[in-house]
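User: Need the bound-state model for coenzyme A:
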Amino acid sequence: MPAVTEVNPLLTTPRLRLEPQVAAHAPVMAAALADPRSYLYIPGKPPADAEALRRRFAHQESRRSPDGSDLWLNWVVLSGQTALGTVQATVHLAQRTADVAYVFAPGAWGQGYASEAVRAMLSFLHSGLEVEEFVAHLDTRNVASRRLVQRLGFVQTDLILGADHFKGNVSDEYVYKLSAAAFSASLPTPPLDFPPAGP
Ligand SMILES: CC(C)(COP(=O)(O)OP(=O)(O)OC[C@H]1O[C@@H](n2cnc3c(N)ncnc32)[C@H](O)[C@@H]1OP(=O)(O)O)[C@@H](O)C(=O)NCCC(=O)NCCS
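Assistant: Bound-state model below.
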């Protein structure tokens, strides 16, 4: 079994630090996850308090489904000392696919943070865990989430009417998918660190 630090390592981007989520993040994340606007189009609600969140995070530290077939990966996204949100992946090891999810605090929206953090996670899932396809399920009303996956190159593959029911409404869902090959091809080419051979 690979160690936690191998399957859910620290990731960094130009502006962000993605720390593997642990129970000790509960106080800062209780603030980042406290706004009900973050839950309009997803089941769930803000954590009752930091202690309730600490218990949930402690439970999630196993990072594996009980039968070991899935990895449950969670990162806390920080800008400096400020927690902005979370990115998550459920990796289906046999299928080499990953369902991805993300929640950011409203104060952090619209600044490209979610795109930057999810891109870093996808990069790691492919290069570190050999995931070949990423999948996102999102409520059809969730314009911001739809724009986010489109920006990352995901393509809609399905529409599931009545996929869920929460907060008094039926939730229809889009399914979006992105192959790791298409994702890698969309990344900017790194600059050459040596001059190209001359003629
Ligand atoms: C979805 C979410 C993570 C996006 O976060 P974000 O930090 O605003 O995303 P980014 O700044 O990286 O923007 C991604 C794209 O969404 C667009 N966007 C962001 N907020 C938007 C809004 N309210 N309406 C329309 N488009 C929006 C951005 O303009 C950008 O698109 P562009 O590249 O065409 O300009 C954030 O809205 C959120 O946490 N929502 C609540 C939780 C949630 O619904 N999670 C998704 C579950 S499926």
